Amino acid sequence: MSRGNVSPRRQAGRVAARVRPRLGRLRVAGSPLFYVAIILTVVRSNWPVTAIVAVGAGVLAGPTMPAGVSSRLVQGSGAWALWLALFVMIGVLVAFLIEKPETMLRSRLRDAAVSARLLRALERGDVEAFYQPIYRVGDGRLVGLEALVRWRKSNGEYASPSTFIPPAERTGAIALVDEHVLGKAVAEAAGWPALAQSVFVSVNLSAATLARPHLVAKIEGLLSDAGLPARLLQVEITESAHIEDLPDAVRRISSLRALGVKVAIDDFGSGHASLNYLQCLPVDVVKLDRTLVTAVTSDVRRRRLLVGVNQMCDLLGLQVIAEGVELHDQLVCLSDIGIAMAQGFLLGRPVPVGEVRDLIGESGPR
Ligand code: C2E
Ligand code: CA
Ligand code: CA
Fold first, then answer.
1. Which 3 state secondary structure label does DSSP give 144?
2. To test the ligand 1 pocket, which listed residue (128, 132, 135, 148) has its Cβ within 8 A of the most ligand atoms?
3. Which terminal Cβ of the chain has fewer Cβ within 10 Å, N or C?
């Protein structure tokens, strides 16, 4: 019988019969070997690539299933497909189980690498503070300057805090960054002209920095070394950062206030703990997050919310600073509501220390 007369089914059966014993030999280590391929892919690649390899491995490994199964395929049995699906599922599961810790490990290594470079930059003096002005809404006078960290890269450009603050918070390197900025801000503010005698400098502290032992003593030392009155320093505790030990934070905040340092809750309204923090933390100032200020002109509910928040702060004896003012109409609205202080790109972007004197000069004598 010529080859062309053989039915496709019989031909496939012959091929299967020839191939299966060879693949069957692979089975000794075959199936586990496919999983080794998947594991290696997980280690070297991302989740989608791994999934593709897992499916590919399943397809290839299908014929290595128990003897007779592959030939049943050509006889129309669904068993081979079932084995194949099972193999693919196991492959995907293996990939998934290994991928999770692998991803965590990768992100930890990335955080550690960023933090290590950041610490070297701190030592080299490549980490600076920029200052963003804070104005009194009523008369437009400069009342404060917020210190915002900037990392100067070798090409002279500055890295945004969003690229290195979150990794530094995760590794704990943030405390060293905060203390560095604190030291710089206190020393630099002490050197500003006499005109600035009532312009405070405001420094961001992450929750981890607040929890550092000796923080209060350190701040006291910095102020006395620089000769800056404590009333001209404000620290901003960011609301999104999770404070683990609330009673301890309360004690430290109270100690800072006893020195005369002002304490603000930052990003108020952006997280879930806003009211809780307001209840628990003995602060002087509330900084309203940009999200509360945006759309205040176009959305009456937002406006009423801001009116309510401002009244609540007033009742609690807290000062209010609105952040992220970008439009003139927003400023007018804040003024109508009676919000005392504001900062934002409309009023002034963060500037290097060299330009602060211009800001103070523009503000005029107090
Ligand atoms: P933040 O404390 O809420 O600081 C205000 C951020 O909003 C700054 O971003 C500022 O440049 C930006 N900003 C000011 N006005 C406007 C505006 O009108 N529109 C918009 N869209 N943005 C405005 P920056 O400097 O990139 O800092 C980002 C965040 O990084 C800060 O948010 C703060 O949470 C953190 N950060 C900055 N410096 C330090 C620091 O020394 N220590 C710690 N722990 N965190 C810091
Ligand atoms: Ca802040
Ligand atoms: Ca803020």
1. strand
2. 148
3. N
Q: Annotate 180-208 with b (16+ C-beta within 10 A) or e (fewer).
A: bbbbbbbebbbebeeebeebbbbbbbbbb
Residue at token pair 């890295």: 159
Sheet strands (E) in 253-314: 262-268, 285-288
**CA pair distance 149, 171, nearest whole angstrom:** 17
Tell me the pTM: 0.79
pLDDT single digits (tens) 66-94: 545 445 544 555 666 676 677 777 777 77
Q: Which of 256, 272, 264 is nearest to 321 (CA)?
A: 264
**202 ligand 1 Cβ < 6 A:** no
Cβ-contact 140, 134 below 8 angstroms: no
Where are any strands of DSSP class E within the chain?
Answer: 127-136, 142-152, 158-159, 200-205, 233-238, 262-268, 285-288, 319-322, 341-342, 351-352
